[in-house]
Amino acid sequence: MHIPGVLILVLVLAWLPSGPVRANEFAFARLVYGDDGFDNWPRWQADWPEAETHFSRGLDRLTLIDVAPEGVLVRMTGSEVFDYPWIYVVEVGYLSLSPGEITRLREYLLRGGFLMVDDFHGRAEWRQFEYVMAQVFPDRAIEELSSDNEVFHVLYDLSEREQIPGIRSLMNGRTWEKGGRYPFWRGILDDQGRVMVAINFNQDIGDAWEHADEALYPARLTTQAYRLGINYVVYALTH
Length: 239
What we know:
The chain has a single domain (5-10, 22-238), classed as Domain of unknown function DUF4159 (Rossmann fold). Helix content is 34%, strand content 13%. It has helices at residues 5-15, 50-62, 99-110, 122-136, 167-171, 205-210, 219-238; strands at residues 29-31, 72-74, 86-90, 114-118, 143-144, 184-189, 195-201. The protein has a 7-stranded mixed beta sheet with strand order 2-1-3-4-7-6-5. A hairpin with a 5-residue loop joins strand 6 (184-189) and strand 7 (195-201).
């Protein structure tokens, strides 16, 4: 189903704060969390900034959305998160949030925000992510998103999907890592059934964006990663 550009524009403008008009309708917002990552490397930084640069260009080219050429970094400690209807977060097997950030994330999502979760694998990383989300929404379960969910059809029809692997796994002849052999598309919904959190488990969509212009990464998987990401963005802007 094609979403008219005028409708997207109206809904995006409704998100903007009062005052000066922002230069673009949409900016790729990445969630920054924690202080130091494993081995002093911040885990939120995976695939940054190439993933957002490539994906933003594709989103601008393939839709009527006016997309900022550069992404932005946001923390749940600031009110500016409410300026962005779609936020991306990676490596959530290492996710940690303060009590204030947990409260702010819950408010952001219930007020209409959308969180895309990517690049985590295996049981141990799932347990850590599940633990954090149980603090954000102790009264809401994580559930499987069925293939007929609107989030998979809002622009591209994605009834059939396959695992999006990281490039290192592909170079080793696998589509999985850390024991996460099977891909899952899960979510947390609000009281009206809107997807607030889209969870891509045992997958690395950001790698497909980051390496979109490299021959080593299969074009078929890059195409699917772009379509899935675009669907998430359009869904976020229209719901």
